[in-house]
Amino acid sequence: MNDYMGEMMIAVSCVIVLLMGCFKRKKEWIINFVFRMVTGTLSVFFVNGFLVSQGISIAIGINLITIFIAGLLGFPGLIMLYCINLYKIL
Fold first, then answer.
1. Cα-based distances in Å from 73 to 31, 62, 68
2. What's the pLDDT score for residue 54?
3. Which sequence spans correspond to the domains of the chain?
């Protein structure tokens, strides 16, 4: 499992570096991406807390992949993650 996580961290780091190179002159896009990553991570944290308090076990984990999806796709991406997790439970 450690090898897998290491490979994922390297892959995500490479993608981030490539995105930074592509958007070198587009600082606004990078700031928007980082802002969506932060707000998406916070929303996952609070939605997971709410779902656990209601006794619903559809919580998704906070990891590099979910943070990247939140930054790239925003709230629709987070809704997609919750729907995939709900489908997996059914």
1. 14, 15, 8
2. 92
3. 2-89
pLDDT at 1: 52
Q: How far is CA 59 from CA 1, 33, 81, in A?
A: 21, 23, 10
Contact of 48 with 66, CB cutoff 8 Å: no
* Cα 44 from chain centroid (whole Å): 9
pLDDT along the chain (90 residues), means of 10: 68 78 72 89 93 89 90 91 88
Query: Burial of 4 by CB count in 10 Å (0-12 exposed, 13-18 middle, 19+ buried)?
Result: exposed
- Which residue from 90, 67, 59, 50 is spatially nearest to 8, judged by alpha carbons? 67
What is d(CA 77, CA 90) in angstroms, rounded to the nearest whole number?
20
Q: Work out the angle at residue 74's Cα, subtended by the Cα atoms of residues 67 and 20, and round it to the nearest 5 degrees.
A: 65
